[in-house]
Amino acid sequence: MFRALRWLGTASILIFIFALPAQHLLENKAMAVPPFMNISGAVTLGTGSGASNGDVNVTDYNDDFGMAMNAALRRGRVVCVLPGNYTAKTAATIAASSVHVFGFGRPSVAVNAANVSTPAVFNIDSDNEVVIEGITFTRDVWVASQVLIDIAPATGTTALNHVVRDCVFTNSNITATGFSDGNEMLDILVTNGAGCEVTDNTFYPGIGVSNVKLVTGNMNIISGNKFRNTLNSGIAELPTTARRAVHRTIHLDNEEWTQIVNNYWWALGIAETNPPGVFDGYRVTNLIYYQGPTGGTEERGHLVIRGNTMAVCTTQTTAWIQIRGCDWAQIEGNFLCFNPLADTIGTGFIVIEGSSGKTGDDSTNITIQANHIHNPGGTSTRQCSAVYIRKATDVKVLANDFNELYCEQAVHVDSSVGTGAAVSRLSVLGNTFNWPATTPAITRVPILRNSNNSALADVHFGGNTVKQGTAHYSGTAPSGKAITNKGIWDTAGSAETASAISINVDF
After folding, report:
1. In b/e form, how buried is each residue of 39-74, taking b as 16+ CB within 10 angstroms?
2. Quick one: which of 450, 436, 335 has its CA closest to 386?
3. Full-model pTM
4. Can you tell me the distance from the alpha carbon of 285 to that of 301, in angstroms, rounded to the nearest whole number?
């Protein structure tokens, strides 16, 4: 009975505290943190003025967020950043384990134009359980290879269970003079991470920026994030200043067991074919890019891409999802809709290829299943595709809804590029293929195959439904094209024969 009464008394006090207006919490130094964080060892960091007067203030540290954060971390492992605008002139270093830095009232940290260091805001070399949440990060100057949050423990150790959560990363559409693949700015970089999470953040990308990069880690999760422009409108309606170019939103380099789930992409890239001014030539390289090692170990990858929504984003020379040299990947239950400028071979939505693209180690055991795939290109005569495959084995395309296909083919099998680029053991089963009824009279087919007859083997095409198109072709082929009755449009110059290729067909 005594314990019950004591619990009720404590609960009443907590209810009273939570009922206090936020202004009272901030004006009272002892109550400068939310009640649930008002624990021994908690430290407040503020601007030094008004309600944002903390235990540590940036005014005492050259108005430098990094210096003030280092001072706060020397006093405790729980740091509450009070509301206000801060400037990171140097980076804060977090070396201890079990550190929690959280923003109260969404404080904003801007990266000073003179801050060209890497990392620029947080250098996390702790090996265990650092949480960064509730902070807005802003920058408007492009600096080659700069990283905002760099999670990288000492050589030979692993970054365990670090979390970046509920933050906002804003990068202005600035001119990125000298930008190229390999010197992009990064919002978050995790090296040798295991069990780390990037979750529930919002990213407003910029030219020459990649948002999240994971390198040589395992069992990391990227979930619930939003990658978008500043306006909630269609890409064709966006003013130039609101469009968001980006290098890559998610880049995985030699990662194992990564999950990319329930994220949202909206209206990234430039709409016009030749946009004016500083935006010319800058669109989106990839939304998701996986690079496996050449000569890697057995069963590389184990990648899951599930439950994501990607809509009205623009790539012109690449694809939204590009997987190179991966073993065991599941691309399932995603919504992919409208890439308005994709028009050439190897562009569109999903590319599966070897570790070096045209050559290198095969990607293998890739399943593309139960996705809604809508309009991978902008016009009906384009050679982009929903799925492009080269240098791969054991690829399964199962129960997808291919809808409004403004392109000539849904699946492009390309074994014509590179040495030993054969594609084998391909299953295309139980899908729906739908071309628009108003499409001009062009050759349309579920699978386009280009190469010689010996480069494709063990294909199973069956149980598919084709609307406003044809499941197979017979009769006279277009000039330079050979025709099969097996659901494949062959560009080899001669028809496939039973002795050259094994195809199982069940319409």
Report:
1. eeebbbbbbbeebbbbbbbbeebebbbbbbbbbbbe
2. 335
3. 0.86
4. 21
Residues 6+ apart with CB under 8 A from 348: 319, 320, 339, 342, 376, 377, 384, 385, 386, 387, 388, 407
pLDDT above 60 for 308? yes
Q: How far is CA 346 from CA 163, 177, 353, 382, 506, in A?
A: 35, 27, 10, 11, 28
Count CA within 13 A, CB hemisphere, residue 305.
Answer: 28
Q: What is the DSSP string of 432-488?
A: EEE--TT--S---EEEEEES-GGGEEEEEEES-EEESS-SS--SSPPTT-EE-SSSE
Residue 304 to residues 34, 63, 122, 154, 261: CA-CA distances in angstroms?
37, 43, 29, 28, 8
Rounded Cα gap, residues 123 and 22, in angstroms: 31
Whether 230 and 206 have beta carbons less than 8 Å apart is answered as no
Report residue 438: phi and psi, to 5°.
-90, 0
What the chain holds in terms of domains, given with CATH numbers, is 26-115 (no CATH), 120-506 (2.160.20)
Average pLDDT, the chain: 80
Helix (H) or strand (E) holding 10: helix 2-19
Helix, strand, coil share of the chain (percent; to 5) = 10, 40, 50
Digit-coded pLDDT (tens) for 156-175: 789 999 999 999 999 876 67
> Residue with structure tokens 């891409």?
305
Measured CA to CA, the distance from residue 216 to residue 193 in angstroms comes to 7
